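Form 7-S
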Amino acid sequence: MPATWDELKQWQPLAAQTLVNSMVKNRVAHAYLFEGARGTGKKEMALFLAQGLFCRKPVEGIRCGECDQCQRIANGNHPDVHLVEPDGLSIKKDQVKSLQEEFSKSGVESKRKAYIINFADKMTVQAANSLLKFLEEPHPSTTAILITEQMHQMLPTILSRCQHVAFQSLAPILFKERLIKEGVHPTMAALLSKLTNEQEEAIRLSSDEWFVQARKIMLKLYEVQKDHPFEAMTRLQSDFLTHFKEKEQIEQSLDLFLHIYKDLLYIQTDKLNHLSYPDQLEDFQKDALHTSTAQLSEQLNTILEAKRKLHQNMNTQLLMEQLMLKLQGGSALV
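Output:
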């Protein structure tokens, strides 16, 4: 589903306003580089810009989204707007040559043409050099939009010919709303919006049985280490160490744990819309009442210290046992 103007304004206010201003003042650049992390709305903004260029009834630079031009661009079947994406692992020279041949012809429905190159950093050297020639002699009615997550992997000569538009990572609350719109359950969206800013990854994890189970295990471990300290050590052996085996998985478990304690802080400061575990609110409220802010701060630092020790290749079982003891007020991580 195409992004609305209100969504784009929320996700990327600076980029959105910059592009609208350029259309209002008729100062659209011949080439743009949209750069930022995955899931920040770059492709949606590229389509928004393309629609604005062709829209039959734009209002103050903002495309209507309803005319035949806007609809055809949204559906990917406008004859004068072309999207190029990697063929396999890369964008090849033949793809750029085909684009050049297409743009040597007159526009089918107007004098204007636009093309979007998604994952532009994945162009082969030959493809990048072909595109460079294209950018060096721009047609006055052609607009190029290059999209990348890895700007440093692109030719400096290409970068110098594009107007750079930076895309910032989405705020967790906005990303949560975006995931819910994509069909992710609100409870899972609340947590995933804190763990990643990549929409595809978040959607995949939301239905991944391993991740669903990981969430349950860490909530149970929190519960038993709080109420039954000796059982926590047993749970480490029976549940934790059998489920979290790779270093990356251990780190994710610590992140899951970290957000439990952050939730207690959010409850104490009445920021309930920031919760990572909204389904645990009732139980967490009781815990927050019996925990001081200073104690929570110390526990959060303890988990962060455990993450640091993990990267120093400390034995996983020893790391987690010491973490449980420290969270219960025992010996420190060493």
